[in-house]
Amino acid sequence: MNRSVNFVIPILIAVLTISAWWILNRPNEEPAWPTRIQGFAFSPMRADDDPSRKRFPSVEDIDADLALLKGRTHAVRSYTVESTLAEIPRLAAKYDLNVTIGAWIGDDPEANEVELARLRDILSKGYRNLVRVMVGNEAILRKDVDVMEMVEYLDRVRRLTYLPVSTAEPWHIWLKYPKLVEHVDFITIHLLPYWEGVPLDQAVDYAVSRYNQVKEAYPNKPIIIGEVGWPSNGRRNRGAEASLVNQTRFLRRFLAVAESEHYVYYVMEAFDQPWKLKTEGATGTYWGVYDTNREPKFDFTEPVVRIPQWRELAGLSVVMGVLLLTFLYRDSSTLSKRGKGFLALITYAISTAAVWIVYDYTRQYMTPATAVVGLLLLIGGVGVIVLLMAEAHEWAESVWLRRWRRPFPLRSVPDEWLPFVSVHVPAYNEPPELLKETLDGLAALDYPHFEVLVIDNNTKDPAVWEPVRDYCAQLGERFRFFHVDPLAGYKAGALNFALRQTDPRADVVAVIDADYIVRPQWLRHLVPAFGDPEVAIVQAPQDYRDAGQNAFKAMCMAEYRGFFHLGMVTRNERNAIIQHGTMTMIRRRTLDAVEGWAEWCITEDAELGLRLFEAGHKALYIPCTYGQGLMPDTFADFRKQRYRWAYGAVRILLHHRRELLGLRGTSLSLGQRYHFVAGWLPWFADGFNLLFNFAALAWSVAMVTFPETVTPPYMTIALVPLVLFVFKMSKSLFLYRRRVTATLRQSLAAGLAGLALSHTIARAMFGGLVTGKLGFFRTPKLAEAPAVIRALADAREEALLAFAFLFAAVAVMQRDDAFMLDVRIWVAVLVVQAIPYLATVLVSLTSAWTHLSADLVGPMSDMDCQEANGVDQPVSREA
After folding, report:
1. Three-point CA angle 418, 571, 547, nearest 5°
2. Total count of domains within the chain
3. Where does the signal sequence lie (predicted)?
4. Looking at the structure, do residues 61 and 136 belong to the same domain, yes or no?
5. Mean pLDDT over residues 687-710, rounded?
6. 80 and 225 together in one domain
7. How many CB atoms are closer than 10 A to CB 504?
8. 169 DSSP assignment
9. What mean pLDDT do residues 765-783 have?
10. Are residues 235 and 181 in the same domain?
11. Residues 13, 31: one domain?
């Protein structure tokens, strides 16, 4: 039954995926393209041409373009007579094409005079196919010249020729300047509804209404449409979407109206113009009916389909989804139908989005810059896919398991069968009263055979360690105290020292931190797990007893709980837990076999666990509270603790990279490799996100500094960080409410505390990659809470970055094109990227405001074992 589900669910989701592609790409009937249109706006630039750099097409290239248009249009309209473009009238005559010749008018009077001199020379040749003259193109709109300057140019040219003369401007310029109309022989209007943000379905009617408006204003002047068109790619302008299907629909609809109304028009334009990227942004490149290879971009007569290649793309989406699901379903026998359906849905959604984004990105013309950016985006995209799949997998396994593979029933074992346990308590400069509470808890253990070794390493003040030594003596011979100074190796060095002092009878070594108060049943409940000879580690979660002190600690408590109630539980299913150095037990024989704790590693506990897995041993995780310690008192200490954990994770991955990648033979299973890589992947994502943030700020500065040439990043790419943020936050809130049994306040508090650590983790990722010299940082307990000023100073980096992002968002919104969708999406990206940094400032301030009650967050319930015969691990019971 379960195996058939593995086939049925992917097939159903694949059918839904293909159906979605089909629905979005149903053919739509549109008017057919006329056999021959009135005219094309004609700029014969090839992919490598750039008039702004004085690179013009050859005469042969121009001739080939005009030959292509023969029989497809009555006329062409040019924009300048510079360089080889002056040959257009002569060459067009060979193909029976009329020419409306244009002279470019800009903001340089001397250049304008040179241009008009060239125009005079061409007019003097008397080409019979010249039908009109255009002096300037949108020069008044660009404010290159004022109306009176244009009037002077027009009058001069009108005196040179018998041909009708005009200038080309958008419709509203003509309505605004009646004086201009008096000095032209006809009115040339541009009707480009896209630039006015008009949605496609309204665009043709809008263009016709503007034509009629100018006609009514000047009934005695002939009117021609100098430019009319729609871009096939580029930015979304309010309600106007630049796409190939919209270009097709607009032009075919407009041409049907234009032919019936006998308009004189020039379609904007014959060929795409990559060189316009620098002056008009990405959209300016894609107005051509033909691409740069001179191939038609759409079908002129057949029904219109949004994506003509949709069948291939849908198939690719399904294939990619199947490959991803094959990996996720390899080890999913305990996952319910809902869980498998959820994974299939997410997987196909991700694969479809990935295929669409790549397709959409490759629709633009590739330059060296866009190719490099595309390669970087592809690499980043693979990382995003892996991260989303890992997050979705944990989501599914946390909620929709039919049963747990590795239940841990509590067993009653006679005292004589219980092994001897050596409990190790490393301590450094700990307050004596705190350590005495820990020793009292150990003294109360309900267990027949154990010893306690307290190893105080490198504490300088005798007033700190001597009271602990004396208290151990009072507790009896089970308690032994060692003060060692100097002792290298930090905590690992202390634990290795303790291992050498351990009673030879000990079969199990247990470790707790110096601030932990254990419950009497700890050893009696968990040590029997070592009855399985393959078990080398038995781990209980970290838990804390001081969450009720204030709101900051309540937030920390909620944040910690997620890992121990979610991540560790799912990792336990594949024998891949992260061993953490308190509330842990290790079989002494295996500990000796791997030569103890790694003194090179700042997170020696997790590293030891991985080494034991590589040696083929098992670990068990019991998600029940058997001991509680103290949390960091300040945000500064909270972040230092997380920095050490993240830094150590990087060093472990680097040190064990061959084993994790399967390049060196070990007993690691695929599931263990997966969890050790995927489990730390979100931390690496924080690191790469930091690089993205710096790039985002730099791009935003460029957008503000050069608004005419630098546009927002590609919109589909910019949406990715927004989608990723929403997905991760949704997952966190859902799992906290469902599996951690947290209230909404606690879930939000946990999310806020987690976000506040993002920058710290990012710095730790890069620190771990470049150096292995980080010293051990002991998390202080019972430290005095910082003042507000100190709290702000602790978060100064994050505060500066938050300000930078918010300031960048405000500055970008000052652009003239701030109304465009891609700008608004980019602003949303900037604001979202500021959220973790703002969270850092807020959490740091919360740690300073010690008077804030923990009731603002609410108490978390204990991770207790509810069932008498085993550990309670609530999961969905769906068959």
Report:
1. 80
2. 4
3. none
4. yes
5. 92
6. yes
7. 7
8. E
9. 66
10. yes
11. no
